[in-house]
Design goal:
By secondary structure, the chain is mainly α. It has a single domain, classed as MFS general substrate transporter like domains (Growth Hormone, Chain: A, Up-down Bundle), CATH 1.20.1250.20. 75% of the residues lie in helices and 1% in strands. A two-stranded antiparallel ribbon has the order 1-2.
Length: 470
């Protein structure tokens, strides 16, 4: 097994007893910017696709939610397959980077096509078209994201340097917030709103996705990586049995499932909440997300410090519980409250979201290393595939539940934008934007109580000779 070795590096420092690890700043930034394109796509589709289909394509809320859910299930099924493929890939660029290049163009194309919908005589035609585009997007996301998330475990073995590296992913996601959540609504309004606004927005966002994804491919050319690993054959059942032995990974996945489910319920619901409950414009919606992601960026240095002194899991649990409290305050929101309170909620949720995102991402490669130590196998792609499968199932269930709740409580679909809704539909928006995300966050915090993979435990784990040649 051969490592690529960067020539210029910065020292990030190690904890006592752990040798310092180094990664080039350009590599950290280049890897982190890869999150921007994916997060723009993920955010726009998870937030606006349901609203776009119900309010501009006349697709019922229940059907639209079902389409989003089915596409995510397909996406989740393909993730482990993509993980195995990237694990078994060889070449001078390593096992992961070739897929970053292919995924970049596929993601950009799906962004443009998703919101540039031909005119169809019936909603059924639009529904079939959106199904095809959702599947294209799901495939593109898998091709890029699974190898991408497998890279950190190969790039560094430093326990705290993983947190440092993951902070650049948080910066990338926060940057995507400015691009996708802040700029996109303003662009839609600038180009007249409605379908025309979404069409123009999609072209601009598609360009941003392509540029950031290609930048990730280019600037990770000096990233440390492992060449193709030839391990002893392990069958599917044995793979599953070994995976189930990694209890920290299982508890982390359960916590991430509930945490992501809360986000998957809240994001599309807020696209309804702002115009229908608060009476706010899309531009106001954009400013809310600007406050959210500004707080997320500002919080990173603090969370890195607290994660090192108090433990990644403890910070994760605390942030989740505080997020539950803030989410419940949406139940008090009304058109008469000061908009400053809405912005304040955005700041609080962004600040706490910076912790949950950073700690959850930093704990993932720790569980990958733990697996390598107890099994002797390098299966980073398999683990990232399982991780993204959990993510996809959460975002399959979230929009589907939102659509079903809206439809069952009388939400009225339209092809001309938002229309007046009955009180029952407004109550459904409150439930999906506040109550259900709070419940999911609480369950996520409870799940983390079973996670016990500390820095000390990882160091004490017996190193098993790898089956691959080093």
């Amino acid at each position: 097994m051969t490592d690529s070795t960067p020539e210029t590096a910065i020292t990030t420092g190690g904890s006592e007893g752990e040798p310092e690890r180094t990664l080039p700043l350009t590599v950290c930034m280049g890897w982190g910017v890869g999150s921007l394109g994916m997060a723009v796509m993920f955010g726009l589709i998870s937030t606006f696709a349901l609203s776009f289909m119900t309010n501009f394509l006349a697709i019922s809320a229940g059907v639209a939610g079902l389409l989003l859910g089915l596409s995510k299930i397909y996406d989740g099924v393909t993730d482990p397959i993509m993980g195995v493929i990237s694990d078994r890939t060889g070449g001078k660029m390593g096992r992961r980077r070739p897929y970053l290049l292919a995924g970049a163009f596929m993601l950009a194309a799906s962004m443009v096509l998703m919101f540039n919908v031909p005119d169809f005589a019936t909603p059924n035609g639009a529904a079939i078209y959106m199904t095809a585009m959702l599947l294209l997007y799901a495939t593109a996301y898998t091709v890029f994201n699974v190898p991408y998330l497998a890279m950190p475990a190969e790039m560094t073995e430093g326990y705290h340097e993983r947190s440092y590296l993951m902070s650049f992913r948080v910066y990338g996601i926060a940057g995507a917030g400015y691009v996708g959540y802040f700029a996109a609504p303003i662009i839609i309004d600038f180009f007249g709103g409605g379908r025309a606004g979404f069409e123009s927005m999609a072209w601009i966002m598609g360009g941003a996705v392509l540029i950031s994804s290609l930048a990730c491919f280019y600037f990770t050319k000096d990233a440390p990586f492992k060449h193709k690993v030839e391990s002893a054959p392990v069958g599917f059942r044995a793979q599953v049995r070994l995976l189930l032995q990694n209890r920290p990974f299982l508890w982390l996945m359960m916590a991430k499932m509930f945490g992501l489910l809360g986000q998957a319920l809240s994001n599309p619901a807020k696209a309804f909440f702002f115009p229908l409950v608060l009476g706010a414009s899309l531009t106001s919606f954009g400013w809310y997300w600007a406050a959210f992601y500004t707080a997320m960026i500002v919080s990173q240095r603090l969370w890195l410090k607290l994660g090192k002194s108090h433990g990644k899991r403890n910070i994760f649990v605390t942030a989740l519980l505080l997020t539950v409290v803030v989410n419940l305050t949406w139940l008090l929101a009304s058109p008469t409250e000061a908009y400053a309170l809405t912005i304040l909620r955005g700041v609080a949720l962004g600040f706490l979201g910076g912790a949950t995102l950073l700690m959850g991402q930093a704990m993932l490669p720790d569980t990958m290393e733990y697996d390598m130590r107890i099994t002797g196998l390098r299966r980073e792609g398999v683990y990232s595939g399982v991780y993204t499968t959990i993510e996809k199932f959460a975002f399959a269930f979230g929009p589907a539940v939102t659509g079903i709740v809206l439809a069952s409580m009388g939400y009225i679909s339209s092809s001309d934008g938002f229309v007046e809704q009955p009180d029952s539909a407004i109550l459904a928006v409150y439930i999906c934007a506040a109550g259900l995300p709070a419940l999911a966050g609480l369950l996520g915090a409870l799940s983390l109580l079973g996670y016990d993979l500390t820095e000390e435990k990882l160091k004490a784990t017996k190193q098993i000779d790898a089956a691959a040649t080093i």
